[in-house]
Amino acid sequence: MTARLLLLTDRTLVPPGRTLDDVLREAAAAGLTRVVLRETDLPDDERQEIADTARSAALEVIAAHRPLLRTVGLHLPASASRPGQALRWGRSCHSRTDVARAASDGAWWATLSPYTWTESKPGYGPPLSDGAFTGHSVPIYALGGVTPDNAEQARKAGAYGVAVMGAVMRADDPAAVVADLLRAVAP
Question: What pTM was computed for the model?
Answer without folding.
Answer: 0.94
